[in-house]
Task: structure prediction
Amino acid sequence: MEGTPHTAWFAVITRWGQWKKIPERLKELRVGCYIPPAYNTLVFLHTDKARALNLVNAGEVKGHFIIDHNTHTLLEVPQDQMEAFIRVTTERPDAVISADEPIQKGARVKVIRGSLKGVEGEVVESPSGNASLVVRILNLLCAKVNIPREDLSLVEG
Result:
């Protein structure tokens, strides 16, 4: 007896304007998805790998997958990174989404108060006295939002 297929988040780059149709079709097919605000040519599919491949190959989702350069296969976004990214981009629509990697040197922090409590990320200092929290999906993109310093705690290790 086979077990339930492993579900993960897979990133697909689509053509501009496709984002309006994709969520409706995926809802009909009972496939979870997330499209970040202000970065709507990127669709995250929440399904198993075989079904994700079938959706793109059959044209249900028009686009191409982002490949993990380390494994040379489809990029699988870990659940904890995806949850943090969704929270930041949903609860703080003013978050800046960028395909650029943030500054390499920076403290790992966890938000300890406010609507983003529990989200971990990297800090890049800003002159305003706040810190810019960067939540990133490794090898893909990041979202940056300003958080008061008193709402951040250093993460050990």
Summary: The first strand starts at residue 7 and ends at 14. The helical segments are 22-28, 49-57, 79-91. The chain has two domains: 7-77, 80-154.
